[in-house]
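Bug #2210: token dump truncated for solute carrier family 35?
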Amino acid sequence: MMMVNKPLVLTYLYLLIYILLSSGVILYNKWVLSPKYFNFPFPITLTMIHMGFSGAVAFFLIRVFKVVSPVKMTLELYITCVVPISAFFAASLWFGNTAYLYISVAFIQMLKALMPVATFIMAVMCGTDKARCDVFSNMLLVSVGVVISSYGEIHFNVVGTLYQVTGIFAEALRLVLTQVLLQKKGLTLNPITSLYYIAPCSFVFLCAPWYVLEKPGMEISQIQFNFWIFFSNALCALALNFSIFLVIGRTGAVTIRVAGVLKDWILIALSTVIFPESTITGLNIIGYAIALCGVVMYNYLKVKDVRASQLPESIPDRMAKDWKLEKKSSDIFTPNNSSDNNGGGGGGSMNSSSDTNVDEETPLISSRLSHVGRSQLSK
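Reproduced locally. Full output below:
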């Protein structure tokens, strides 16, 4: 009889769960927000529901059930680290979810190929990465691919595109701030403690735009509020964050990057079936393929840099160091969404700072993971 490699099977199972949850959260968010379907066109409200639910669950896990212990958080640390990270996290989910009102899921996923470009630009501006010609050429290739894909979009919408791109840059800045602020201060947050500290703060940041932009509209419109719809939606977003943590803990940045690419292709295909108006053209596919080539080449360069910096070490030492770094990256979580981003926060889910989230959704969740994790390694 053939021996079953249980750890390998478990790893693939976690990857499958991550792909299903990430895709599900993004499609679910689109269905809830779209005027053509559930018709709840209030993305800030949906994001606040996710943040409130995640924060409440984290509170009970830490304070009531004592699953994990809270970290030593001083007021100075909270104000200088958690608050700015939470602000940009809230912004990335807000803008990413708002984009669902204007553009298709397929086109949103194509725009998310810009995530490495945005992260690289922010990293150079903040001094955590250096400008290089080879990396710049890859970023240029990604940008050209996204432009071609946008040109081929049948239902191109300027407002929706601006929302999505703004959300991408907000997420990129959040990831860089996570590296600059949290990691340099030696503070690591696992998924539960990350939700515990960041979700309530993000919720508070969203209150002001909600009061100005959505509260008046909710008072005059006939809203359908189905408890089970919103509960299951928030539960899926929460589960996505935990699945990201499990995948990173068992694999690492490179594997989840590959899984993220696979997820994006699956999501693009599924969205065209579930949402008939989300048609894609040949130019869309060509542009996205070009952009992905740039992303893959960029990640190859980063991995090559890491390996070059580790060459003088013995193989056992290098393996031990890789294991420690991968474990460390799994401890740092400041969420897809997105949202699958964004994509869910993910879309509305807290995407782990996982590039160190991964993707909410967001979100290319994996490209985020890959960049921050690798840039930390190469130091």
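Output looks complete on our side. Residues 310 and 321 are 9 Å apart (CA to CA). Marking as cannot-reproduce; reopen if the truncation happens again.
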